[in-house]
From TrEMBL:
Keywords: Cell membrane, Membrane, Symport, Transmembrane, Transmembrane helix, Transport. The chain crosses the membrane at residues 12-30, 42-70, 82-101, 156-173, 194-219, 225-251, 326-345, 357-380. GO terms for biological process: dicarboxylic acid transport. It is a multi-pass membrane protein. GO terms for molecular function: symporter activity. Its main location: membrane. It comes from the Bacteria. The keyword Transferase does not apply. This is Glutamate/aspartate:proton symporter. It comes from Latilactobacillus fuchuensis.
Length: 424
């Protein structure tokens, strides 16, 4: 049976076409309220379709992975390695952002009073709740009082905590649990099938999301902050290619190969500025690439709350940018304090829309920058969000491979077979 020519073009190219078309349409319909509302609706429907399948995939894959693992000591070892790795990479990302911010001083070139203020009203209330988002709050938030409420609210960490316990409990029943484990495995397979269907709509969703961004803010919004944007993207690229590349090389992983494998997911994450949009395909592809189901099911969802490398770079850079724009000199001690604060406040925030922006809003007051200062970069937050989301996805994919290799649960033969299929 002949397939339509549309489907012969790879998904990555179709998404890139959607981005280009969105840029054109957004520019044509700049400040057109009807066009903005229409594009926003289309984009929201696509994101909602993705969100609809994220939790069923995470829960079903994690239950099966943990139940088959069945060893609480092994799980504890994997969990310890994973969190240690996440903390190390996040700290390096924050420190890199601070280093680059001190070297380039992007805020010194800005007359902050000449910039147009964006709207931060939608983030203010959320930021208030983050203000006391200390280590104790993170720990207390791990255990859900109501798992169904956690599922409804999309609170990833409490969900993972419950599902891990459920999977371990299921494993204790041996053969009697096999029917239920098989049922969860079938659910995961059905969800991956739905993912493939939904992803065919990605070019349309991407077109709408890019279009509404340009239609709202226009290309002129970039002009006063173009240097800050360039510094942000250059730092994130350096982190992926050099920092993550060196870490990958230590574990005999080729970072360029990984970028090629996940290119479609990275483009999707970039264009939608949503990590959730890429999660289902990342979960599926990382297993095809050779990572065991148990490792993939645990590391990837956990990383969405604890391993936000792109967000960490942005938060540290933006904090310094605003301090410099206000001519506030930060001592070494103040910058170290900022690093520690960001290490804590950046955890567990992935489920909140505009999470990085909210964390930044809640953090900058600790270094004497007025909270209203964040309004000056609100207009370009979406544009930076695209880059930091792609870096977050890349960081979590690499983490899964490294943890799998450390546990000797990476199938090299499966990887070679997958790469061969990509070339054919």
């Amino acid at each position: 049976m002949q397939h339509y020519r549309y489907f012969r073009i790879s998904l990555g190219w179709r998404i890139l076409f959607g981005i280009a078309l969105g840029l054109v349409v957004g520019g044509i319909f700049y400040q057109n309220k009807v066009a903005i509302a229409t594009l926003q609706s289309i984009g929201t429907i696509f994101i909602n379709l993705i969100k609809m399948i994220v939790l069923p995939i995470v829960v079903s894959c994690l239950v099966v992975g943990i139940a088959k693992m069945g060893d609480i000591k092994k799980l504890g070892r994997i969990g310890g390695k994973t969190l240690l790795y996440f903390e190390m990479m996040t700290t390096i990302a924050i420190a890199l952002g601070l280093l680059v911010g001190n070297l380039t001083k992007p805020g010194r070139l800005i007359d902050i009073h000449s910039l147009s203020k964006g709207s931060i009203g939608q983030y203010t209330e959320a930021a208030k709740s983050v203000g006391n988002h200390g280590l104790g709050d993170v720990v207390m938030g791990i255990v859900p009082t109501n798992i169904f409420k956690a599922l409804t609210d999309g609170e990833m960490i409490p969900i993972i905590f419950f599902v891990v316990l459920f999977g371990l409990g299921l494993a204790t029943f041996g053969k009697r649990a096999e029917p239920l484990i098989n049922a969860f495995e079938m659910i995961s397979q059905v969800m991956f099938k739905l993912t493939n269907w939904i992803m065919q709509l990605a070019p349309i969703g991407v077109f709408a999301l890019i279009g509404v961004t340009i239609a709202q803010f226009g290309f002129s919004a970039l002009k006063p902050l173009v240097f800050f944007l360039v510094v942000c993207y250059a730092t994130m690229i350096f982190f992926v290619v050099v920092v993550a590349g060196l870490v990958a090389r230590i574990w005999h992983v080729n970072i360029l190969e990984l970028l090629k494998v996940f290119k479609e997911e990275l483009v999707l994450a970039f264009s939608t500025a949503s990590s959730e949009a890429a999660l289902p395909k990342v979960m599926e592809k990382i297993q095809d690439y050779g990572v065991s189901q148990g490792i993939a099911s645990f590391v990837i969802p956990t990383g969405y709350s604890f391993n936000l490398d792109g967000s960490a770079i942005y938060q540290s850079l933006a904090a310094l940018f605003l301090a410099q724009a206000y001519h506030i000199h930060l001592s070494l001690a103040q910058q170290l304090t900022l690093l520690v604060v960001l290490m804590i406040t950046s955890k567990g925030m992935a489920g909140v829309p505009g999470a990085s922006f909210i964390v930044l809003l809640a953090t900058i007051t600790t270094i004497g920058v007025p909270a209203s200062g964040v309004a000056f970069i609100a207009g370009i937050d979406r544009l930076v969000d695209m880059g930091r989301t792609a870096v977050n996805v890349m960081g979590n994919s690499l983490a899964a491979v490294i943890i799998a290799k450390s546990e000797k649960e990476f199938d090299e033969a499966k990887r070679d077979q997958y790469l061969a299929q990509m070339k054919s």
